[in-house]
Amino acid sequence: MRLNRLTFIFIFLVGATVFAPRTHAWGCQGHYITALIAEKHLTPHARAMVAQILDAGPIDPALLRYCKEAIADRFADSSTWADDQRSIHPSTAGWHFIDIPRGARSGSISPYCPESTGCVTAAIVDQLVLLHNPDTTASRRADALRYIIHFIGDIHQPLHTTSNNDRGGNCVPVDFWGRAPVETNVQMESFLPNLHSIWDSDLITQYAGTRTPQQLAEDLDSEFKQQIPPWLSGSRDPHVWAWESHEVAEQVVYGLLPNKITIEKPVAVSSCADDEHIALRMLNLKEKIAADYQKAATPIVSEQLTKAGARLAAVLNELWP
Length: 321
Fold this sequence. Notes:
Shape: globular
Helix content: 40-55%
Radius of gyration: 19 Å
Distance between the termini: 64 Å
CATH superfamily: P1 Nuclease
Number of domains: 1
CATH class: Mainly Alpha
């Protein structure tokens, strides 16, 4: 039986979603907010250099963009480019996260950053070297800047720095405000909503209401005006940030769940069917996320987004005081 064109396109889009390596950290809104907050705190020199670099190496207009609602701010628009680029260069997928096992004690991060795939901490360091090197080509330098904008956002999403054999919470199906989890891939045992997806987007969307990313950035910049100066002058070490986010995942993301999830013995997983069908085991917990979890998690989401913006500004200001 021949498939008509619309059916083929539908199957292609569903397949692209189902087999995606990980979901997009913070989603479009979250990355936009982090970038918009960072812009507010750039030095004049850093602001001018950022504009110059993005001018010299613009985003390919033919690139298929995941975030369909365009944002006029070029710096903010650059914040989601790394997710789009991943579809062209799948080898960069591992750069977006670091799977520190739940229960791991703070120390060297190298055991959790395989040389074969890389990880978000190594990616930030590597891209900063390229950005700082005057011999880097204009196109590659602009790419490095866009990666840094994105990855500093990623590392502040707690589930991009932790795993419980659950692929950063992707294998923890949840009911979100009455929206029950639905299996999206039988073979890989993937479900939506899941713990990772609600931290990427749903908690932010619920909190934002009708506010735009620009309005949310303004509100958060005002709400955290006392904390932003210490974040601007604080640690610029992504390894420190990773351990900090990992602790947030333990204390808040997992710690506030209505039904507690035990720490798994770390094993290698490539899908939610691994580790004795971890997603199906988590599905049986019947996690329900609604008002109580949202109320407790929202201040943490807000703080992580704002902190990421301040630290992004600090890194760029250090390059161009």
